[in-house]
Design goal:
alpha/beta; Cobalt-precorrin-4 Transmethylase, domain 1; Methyltransferase, Cobalt-precorrin-4 Transmethylase, Domain 2; 2 domains; five-stranded parallel β-sheet; five-stranded mixed β-sheet; elongated
């Protein structure tokens, strides 16, 4: 079955001229892209994409599709959010079929809601396609679950990055629970604050933490540490953005659940 046929079979209408699709591209591995996202990407006249959208995902679009990079990193924005909003409106008004590609899920720390509001304000048709968020993808590829009934009662996704005009003002007392998994997005620059505030509210310095850099990509690197050693570990390992910080007892399951890749196991057997 072709992608076009699959889209029709799923009841997904074709992307119309002047319409914007806000699409979650997943955390990096192109294999984690949804079929609906792939269908829309292949219909695009224009791709407006973020820094964490992989080259492999971009390559799935038609060659003739225009590509607009609007990526953001700390203190380095290709376009401001307002400029990105204006770009989406302009392309739609020109009658383009626009796919706005976002790493992970567009509605989880992806500013997808802000862009959707702008489209509504300008009378532009749009649809949203969810994606596998970084928390889900990185945890699974690192080898542990985010929830497990023997260890935690919930999971919370937390922004570790404050607006430029403010500090990271969170309800630390509510977050500091041993029976809860915390996933901090964009938290490297505030790792010391995260460690101090959670420790002050009662989490032990030995509480497990996983640091996952460039998760689900061939460059994935992960380090297991503790809350008390969080800041030192980041400095020692020279971890860089994007790195997810996962705090919780479930991190301790890595040793039990991570299995040796088949190719490595076969090589070891041959060497014996």
């Amino acid at each position: 079955m072709t992608i076009d046929a699959l889209g029709r079979d799923l009841g997904e209408p074709a992307l119309g001229p002047g319409e914007v699709a806000i699409v979650g591209a997943g955390p990096g591995d192109p294999g984690l892209l949804t079929l609906r996202a792939l269908d829309l990407i292949q219909q695009a006249d224009c791709l407006v994409y973020d820094r964490l959208v992989s080259a492999e995902v971009l390559a799935l679009a038609p060659r003739a599709a225009q590509r607009f990079y609007v990526g953001k990193a700390a203190r380095c924005h290709a376009l401001t959010q307002d400029q990105t909003n204006q770009l989406l409106v302009r392309l739609a008004v020109e009658g383009k079929r626009v796919v706005r590609l976002k790493g992970g899920d567009p509605y989880i720390f992806g500013r997808g809601g802000e862009e959707a509001e702008m489209l509504v304000d300008n009378g532009i048709n749009f649809r949203v396609v969810p994606g596998i968020t970084s928390a889900q993808g990185c945890a699974s590829y690192a080898g542990f679950p985010l929830t497990h009934r023997d260890y935690v009662q919930g999971v919370t996704f937390v922004t570790g990055h404050a607006r430029a005009d403010g500090s990271l003002d969170l309800d630390w007392s509510a977050l500091a629970s041993r029976r809860h998994t915390l996933v901090f997005y964009m938290g490297l620059s505030n790792a010391g604050l995260i460690s101090r505030e959670l420790s002050t509210r009662g989490l032990p310095s030995s509480h497990p933490v996983a640091l996952i850099e460039r998760g689900t990509t061939p460059q994935q690197r992960q380090v297991v540490t503790s809350l008390g050693q969080l800041e030192q570990t980041i400095a020692r390992e020279r971890l860089a953005s994007p790195t997810l910080i996962v705090v919780g007892e479930v991190v301790g399951l890595i040793d039990r659940l991570v299995q040796e890749p088949p190719a490595i196991a076969a090589w070891c057997e041959a060497a014996l």
